[in-house]
Every structure is written in structure tokens, then in C-alpha cells.
């Protein structure tokens, strides 16, 4: 027994690591983990035989984007290159695990640990790896359904892919940050970008704040003890939420029509006023903000109504004893409780409206047109991206703007969530 332990102390983890680096599985064979070593050997051999040509062409393609027009398709090469990078990342992770596993087993053997039998090794691997086995299919789908399209979009932002330079007739080229520079330097892109970006900010802040304020105001009114028929009123106020949004938007688009819409023809005409809701950018923006306030307040109203009913009346009674006014009770009791409970959802309202494509597209398709710009007067960033992609085929600029949108929304949401309790660990609240 002592000789066996001496031999194991002479077992060198560095040798196991070097062998695993040379070829996956050799370190496991050195550790006398025969089955595990054979599995790693088969996996690496199968990987090299199956994917060598695919990865070789993919990595060449993503670097060059092709060399012969009409034969090399830059888009296909780009996608193949991205898939190759993902496959290589998986392979490197498994390769690294193979090295770490060989070193860990070698250290255990050096310390005199018993070599497990095949049955014991399989049972241990199943116990440890069971959660990963369940997670892996979803992870793979997530990578190829979500991550791959995102990587493709990000890649297009650094190419010259547009209507006049599209494969297979032409080859794409990597242009670095030229598309981002053009957004803020070339006249038509600069004026359009800053105009659309400023309106997107105004739209997000005003429309979302409007629906939150209206929802809070109505929730406070309905929650008042003097109000009767509360159930009926709450049901009535939530009805706009029950109607599909696209139906409501199309109805409002007809109502705001300059010529035959009910708002101009039946209401404003009574006082001799006709407002160009669809042809003037300013009035179109007013209409859009009004519609979004109508669409968004029922959700906020329902949210605030539930929170208001959970606030203890003892707080208000104590405030009455101290001589607190209605405004003071609202400021120091109601509002903090409401915001405390709903802050993450309210943040998501702002983030959602920042990318609220439906209302802009369905109401007037981002119109009316504005001279000197390649976006409509009410286009926000996301609807502008849609037009650049499907109307003018400026894929590179659309991808660049999409990256900016993603960074803005994710940065704002992450910063605000960090300031609320939603991201704090239990016990540190």
C-alpha cells in the first residue's frame, strides 16, 4: 500500500497538463482515467475532422469578406465566419476544461486518491453535470437564435453594405467606425440623426411621464374613500388596455385624419378650427403623445391601484394626528410607497416607449416628410432603422443606429435598476 502511495506522489500534474494541451484526452489517459480520456480523444478528433474546412473558410471569410465578386458572397462568408467563431469558442471551452480536469485528477492521484471505477466515474459525472445537461440545449438555442443575429447586426455596422454595394455583385469591405462618424459629420445624416434622436428622447420622456401621471392621478381618485362604484370605474378605466393596441392606433389614425377625421370634422370644426394632424410634424407629434398616453395609462392605473390598496391606513391616521395636509401625506406616504413598489416596471415603461415602433408605424408611418432629412417628421430611432433597412436598404447605417439604440436602452435600464432594490442581494437591502 505504501509503494502504491509513493507512486502516486510521483505522479506529475504538469505532465498531465502538457499531454492534454498536445491533444485532448492524453492527460486523462496518463491519469489512468481511460474512459474519460477516450471520450475526449473522440470529441477532439471528430471536431477536427468535421469542422476543419468549415472553420478554415469561415475565419478566412470573416477577415476578407471574399476576394472574387459574383463568386464570393460576403454575407454568407460573414455568417459562416460568425458561426465558426461560436464553434471555436465552444471547442476552446471544452479544451480548457480538458486541461483543468487532467490537472485536477493528477493532483488527486498525487495525494493518493483512489481511481474511480467506470460506474463510479459515470455516476459522479452525472451528478455533477446533470444541471448543465439540462441547461445546454437552451443555451445552444439562445446562442444561435439571439446571439448570432446580434453579432451579425453588429458586424454590418462596420461594413459598407448598402443598396449600391451589395453582394454577390459587389464585395463588402470592413470600414471600421466610418458609419458612426458619418452619422455625426455628413450633413444629411447629421441633421437627420440629431433631429430623430432629440424627438425620440422627447417622445420617451413626455409620453411615458404622461401615462404615468394620468394613471397615478386616476388611481388616487378611485382610491378615495368618498368615491362609490369603485369596481365599475376601475373596470371602465382598464377597458382601453383590453382592446388590442394596433386596433386602437388605427382607429385614432382615422379620427385624426385632416380631411375626414372625427376630431377635425365633428369637433374642432364647430369652433372653426382645422388642425393638420397628419401633415404638420408638430401636430403629428402632439397626436402621437396623446394616443400613447391613452394606450399606456390603464396598465399604470391598474398597477398603482393595487399598490395604493396595500398601504396601511395607520400611516394616514398618524399623519392626521400630526396635522399633515393632503399634499404632505401624498408626498411623504403615498408617493414613496408607490414608487418603491413599482420602480422597475416604470423604468421598463420608459425603455419600452423608447423602442415603441408600433404606434409610429401604424399611425402615419413616421410621416410627414421633412426636407433635407431621410427620416419622417415623427420617426423615432427604431422606426428610422426600419425605413433604412426595408425602404432605402442602408443596412450598414441601420446597424450602426441599432447599436446606439441598444447601448442607450441597456445603459439607462441597467443604471436605473441598480438604483432600485431589484438588483440588490437579499440581506443587503
Structure description:
- By secondary structure, the protein is mainly α.
- The chain has 2 domains: 2-156; 181-423, MetI-like fold (Orthogonal Bundle).
- Helix content is 73%, strand content 0%.
- The chain contains 17 helices and no strands.
- Helix 5 (74-110) runs antiparallel to helix 6, helix 7 packs across helix 8 (187-223) and helix 14 (326-354) packs antiparallel against helix 17.
- The longest helix is centred in the N-terminal third of the chain and has 39 residues, at 118-156.
- The chain is flat and about 95 Å long.
- The chain starts with a helix and ends in an 11-residue tail after the last helix.
Count of spatially separate domains: 2
Q: Report, as a whole number of angstroms, the end-to-end distance.
A: 55 Å
User: Quick one: biggest sheet?
Assistant: none
Structural class: mainly alpha
Question: H/E series, N to C?
Answer: HHHHHHHHHHHHHHHHH
> What is the CATH fold-level name of the largest domain?
MetI-like fold
What is the count of β-strands? 0
Unreliable residue runs = 1-6, 425-429
> Judging from the principal axes of the Cα atoms, what is the shape?
flat
Provide the β-strand percentage band: under 5%
* CATH 2nd-level architecture of the largest domain: Orthogonal Bundle
Radius of gyration: 31 Å
- Estimated helix fraction: over 70%
CATH class of the largest domain: Mainly Alpha
Spell out the CATH superfamily of the largest domain.
MetI-like
Number of alpha- plus pi-helical segments: 17
How confident is the prediction overall: mean pLDDT? Answer: 88
Amino acid at each position: 500500500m505504501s509503494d502504491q502511495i509513493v507512486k502516486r506522489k510521483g505522479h506529475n500534474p504538469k505532465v498531465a497538463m502538457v499531454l492534454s494541451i498536445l491533444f485532448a484526452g492524453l492527460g486523462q489517459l496518463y491519469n489512468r482515467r481511460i474512459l474519460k480520456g477516450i471520450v475526449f480523444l473522440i470529441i477532439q478528433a471528430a471536431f477536427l475532422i468535421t469542422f476543419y474546412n468549415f472553420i478554415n473558410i469561415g475565419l478566412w471569410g470573416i477577415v476578407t469578406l471574399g476576394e472574387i465578386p459574383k463568386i464570393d458572397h460576403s454575407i454568407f462568408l460573414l455568417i459562416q465566419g460568425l458561426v465558426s467563431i461560436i464553434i471555436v469558442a465552444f471547442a476552446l471551452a471544452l479544451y480548457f476544461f480538458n486541461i483543468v480536469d487532467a490537472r485536477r485528477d493528477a493532483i488527486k492521484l498525487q495525494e493518493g486518491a483512489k481511481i474511480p471505477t467506470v460506474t463510479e466515474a459515470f455516476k459522479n459525472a452525472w451528478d455533477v453535470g446533470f444541471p448543465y445537461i439540462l441547461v445546454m440545449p437552451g443555451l445552444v438555442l439562445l446562442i444561435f437564435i439571439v446571439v448570432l443575429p446580434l453579432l451579425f447586426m453588429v458586424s454590418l455596422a462596420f461594413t459598407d453594405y448598402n443598396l449600391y454595394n451589395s453582394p454577390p455583385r459587389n464585395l463588402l469591405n470592413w470600414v471600421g467606425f466610418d458609419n458612426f462618424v458619418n452619422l455625426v459629420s455628413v450633413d444629411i445624416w447629421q441633421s437627420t440623426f440629431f433631429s430623430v434622436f432629440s424627438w425620440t428622447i422627447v417622445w420617451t420622456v413626455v409620453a411615458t411621464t404622461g401615462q404615468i401621471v394620468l394613471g397615478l392621478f386616476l388611481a388616487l381618485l378611485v382610491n378615495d374613500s368618498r368615491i362609490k362604484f369603485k369596481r365599475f370605474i376601475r373596470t371602465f378605466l382598464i377597458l382601453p388596455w383590453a382592446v388590442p393596441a394596433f386596433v386602437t392606433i388605427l382607429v385614432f389614425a382615422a379620427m385624426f385624419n385632416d380631411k375626414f377625421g372625427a376630431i377635425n370634422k365633428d369637433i374642432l370644426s364647430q369652433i372653426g378650427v382645422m388642425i393638420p394632424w397628419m401633415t404638420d410634424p408638430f401636430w403629428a407629434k402632439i397626436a402621437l403623445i396623446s394616443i400613447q398616453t391613452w394606450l399606456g395609462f390603464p396598465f399604470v392605473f391598474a398597477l398603482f391601484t393595487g399598490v395604493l390598496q396595500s398601504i396601511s391606513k395607520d400611516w394616514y391616521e398618524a399623519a392626521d394626528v400630526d396635522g399633515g395636509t393632503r399634499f404632505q401625506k401624498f408626498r411623504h406616504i403615498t408617493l414613496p410607497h408607490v414608487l418603491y413598489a413599482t420602480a422597475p416596471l416604470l423604468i421598463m415603461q420608459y425603455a419600452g416607449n423608447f423602442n415603441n415602433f408600433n404606434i409610429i408605424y401604424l399611425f402615419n408611418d413616421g410621416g410627414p416628410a421633412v426636407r433635407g432629412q431621410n427620416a419622417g417628421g415623427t420617426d423615432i430611432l427604431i422606426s428610422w432603422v426600419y425605413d433604412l433597412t426595408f425602404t432605402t436598404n442602408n443596412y450598414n447605417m441601420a446597424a450602426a443606429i441599432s447599436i446606439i439604440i441598444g447601448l442607450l436602452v441597456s445603459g439607462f435600464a441597467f443604471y436605473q435598476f441598480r438604483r432600485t432594490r431589484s438588483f440588490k442581494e437579499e440581506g443587503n437591502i
